[in-house]
Design a protein that fits this description.
mainly alpha, 82% helix
Length: 74
């Protein structure tokens, strides 16, 4: 376990020394972060859309039951 921390520390030290490696890693992490954000937003929108359709379906199903009607206000 301590060896793993040693590898991580040496990796950060190498990134601090080598500007090109640092820029490459930063660009890679930035790209992954943007893709992750896009996927999170898309997933949330799909979840909200699905929930909306289910709510409408349950509402319409409930209207089919005897005695349930839509009250129109004029």
């Amino acid at each position: 376990m301590f060896q793993m921390f040693d590898y991580i520390f040496k990796g950060f030290k190498a990134l601090k020394i080598n500007r090109r490696k640092n820029d490459d890693i930063f660009n890679h992490v930035e790209r992954i972060s943007e893709e992750t954000q896009t996927l999170k937003v898309r997933t949330a929108m799909n979840l909200v859309t699905d929930m909306m359709y289910f709510q409408v379906a349950f509402y319409l199903q409930d209207l089919k039951k005897p005695g349930n009607t839509i009250i129109a206000v004029t």
